[in-house]
Amino acid sequence: MKNQKQTIKCSECGYCSGFRPVGNTRTEFTCTHPDRDYLKNYFHEKHINKMLAFIGFGARYSDVVPIKTAPAWCPKKKNSEKNESGTR
Question: Of 12, 33, 48, 73, which sits most exposed with the smallest number of CB within 10 A?
Answer without folding.
Answer: 12
